[in-house]
Amino acid sequence: MPVPTAAELTDPNATNTQMKQRLGQLAENVESKEGALEKANEARDEAISASAPLENFNVMGNPDNLVEIKDAAGRLIAAWNLKAEFVTKLLTDGIIQSVENGDGSSVLTLGNGREVDLYGTKFTLDLSNPDNALQLLAADNKVLFKIPLNGLDVDALLGAAEQINTLSGTLSSLKNAFLTQNHENGISKSEIFNSEKLSETRRKVTAIESGGIEQLVITSIGNSWLDTPSYLSLPLVRALKAKYGNAGAGYISSVRSYIDSAEAQLSASSGQWTSSNAALSDLNIPAPDIASNSSSNVGAYLQVTLKKGIASKVYLLADSTGAVVNVTKGGTILQTLTISSVITELPVTLDATSTQDSFRLEVVSGTATVYGFDLRNNQKGIRFNKCGAGGSRWTRWLNATASTWQAFIAHFNADLVIMLEGVNGSWAYDANAEKNYTEQMINRVRAATKNADIILMSPPDILASPTYTLRSYQDALRGKSLDWKVCHVDLQKTFGEQVSDYDDSGRQYILMANPNHPSDIGGILIASLILRLITG
């Protein structure tokens, strides 16, 4: 029935019967509206329940927020303000202060809003992604977990946390197992690691063996183990040249002894030259072997004598001081030269196939500072540039002007670079410092000859007692050999696990008479190992 109007309810002319009818109609309609409101409220509650993001979440109102999402325990997960904006500032107060296991132990906690502790593992909380309420980042900034703006799946979080916890335990077990293997019967037990990095060396050797006119060029850099010929270079070079041929004498230092005195040698006019050696002091001598010979005496000479093989090209390696020198052979001046470059090709050829042959460099004016000479030919075979510096450690090498030193290393254009240090360094700095200095030296070598293979050798414990153990050096360098992409040789494994295995009472690879260096038979042992690496 229609609801009576206000005019009908206040009509002064209405009879008593009419007024009773009109009041009855009004009461009936009020009762009907009250039932509808109750039903509407019930329908609203059912709709809210059905539209909850997850069945274990509740949507609740708040005077300051349009929507808040809490889990079954009443913990606030996310909130949107009255403008329907996600309220990220609540994260700094800890939207999720903790998520707990059934036993009360913490699965996840938020500290200051940036550091996240998930099962004991630290992550970074990141709020920069506009599509996510938050995300967890690993140390390398990879996203490990994220919460989208439409809410957090707590079950997914707990499942991910359980996986991380399991993985953490597995990684810890693997780490312990690796360390055990590494020191007892794993990769560091082998004397050779990462030998697959010698691809260019193997290619050149195979080309020579198959009849090609190829040359394998080797440069050695390091301390006395790579300077004194008997410690390694002499037996190695003789074996390689006997097998593959002689591609030239290579580098002949103006200060240090040549590899094989039966092949070539350098002599100087007596009392007229002054040598400088950066291996023993903090000097900047950017020679290949950080040593030089200088003279301003007119007529002072350096004589290079070739006793075996041929030198179709001869280069002078010197400081570009502007000194004037004569290049002579058999008393005849072949050239008067002003030294204006650190590398100069000389108008000289030497042929010692039947008898030795030689030439001289004589001072005319100025001060000539000579580093050495490079002798080459076009025949297939081996050319070895011995650049070891007895008594040196890497810090002394790093004193040399990098660009000049690298110009000489680039000039040699080696296929293989052999590096060894550690003995002298172990008296001065720890294994971590040795690792860092080694990396700097490798970077210098790579900048000069980026395609060269590198054999990095670690010496064994010596009979003397340095400040830091050489075993710690061995572990540090092997651990980085993968990153450096070098072949690492641990001579401790070659010589023996204990010093007593190879001292005077053992196999005599190192003797007390010379406690810091290999004996002659120790040098042959090292050469046999490198020979095996080169020849396969």
Automatic annotation (TrEMBL):
It comes from the Bacteria. Residues 23-50 form a coiled coil. One of its GO terms (molecular function) is hydrolase activity, acting on ester bonds. InterPro entries: SGNH_hydro_sf. This is SGNH hydrolase-type esterase domain-containing protein. Keywords: Coiled coil. The keyword Coiled coil applies.
